From TrEMBL:
SUPFAM superfamilies hit by this protein: MCP/YpsA-like
PANTHER family the record matches: UPF0398 PROTEIN SPR0331, UPF0398 PROTEIN YPSA
Pfam families the UniProt entry points to: YpsA (PF06908)
The protein, known as: DUF1273 family protein
Listed InterPro entries: YspA (IPR010697)
Length: 186
């Protein structure tokens, strides 16, 4: 596997109201751990639309990993001004990420026109990647469910793979962090 995408929920779907929410750091730790294991297995590119939430945080993790690993980041929003209706903090983060990405290209060189842009983005990502890392609950996928349904069909019809970071995996990251902090208080 050389190229993957990352999907997951938007901040509101996770009940995350600001960028200082401590849960974001645990999400990033879980993403980082999994991405490093993929890099060790030959991962070269992470490509995504850069949607606010899991995708944007994953992009930030990839930028961090680029300092130590040979990994590249591609951001392919479905249309121009993709981030224009997001809260300012996420707009700023998106603009920072596209400056740090190895490749940036909107799939449609026009602003939002219709839902087909999102649908075609989903199929484009499936076509261009070997698999997808999903951070979320498979039973309650939120907005990521639209692309996840298409990805599950790709698994059935091709060599496409889906890997999950589940709520239980996140709880384990939190427990490990608490255990580490408690052991260093002595």
């Amino acid at each position: 596997m050389k190229v993957i995408t990352v999907i997951g929920n938007k901040p509101m779907e996770l009940n995350i109201r600001n960028e200082n929410d401590p849960r974001i750091s645990f999400i990033k730790i879980a993403l980082k751990q999994r991405l490093i294991s993929f890099i060790d297995e030959g991962l070269e590119w992470v490509i995504m639309s850069g949607q606010m939430g899991i995708e944007l945080w994953a992009a930030q993790v990839v930028v961090e990993l680029k300092e130590e690993y040979s990994i590249k980041l591609g951001i392919f929003p479905p249309f121009l001004e993709y981030e224009s209706r997001w809260p300012d903090v996420y707009q700023e983060a998106f603009l920072q990420i596209i400056e740090q990405a190895d490749y940036y290209q909107p799939l449609y060189n026009e602003p939002y026109k219709a839902p087909y842009q999102f649908i075609n983005k989903d199929f484009w990502l499936i076509d261009k990647t070997d698999g997808c890392l999903v951070l979320g609950d498979e039973e309650y996928p939120g907005s990521a469910g639209y692309v996840l349904d298409k990805m599950k069909k790709a698994v059935e019809s091709s060599n496409y793979s889906i890997w999950y970071i589940t709520p239980n995996d996140l709880e384990e990251v939190v427990r490990d962090h608490q255990d580490y902090n408690e052991s260093h208080l002595d």
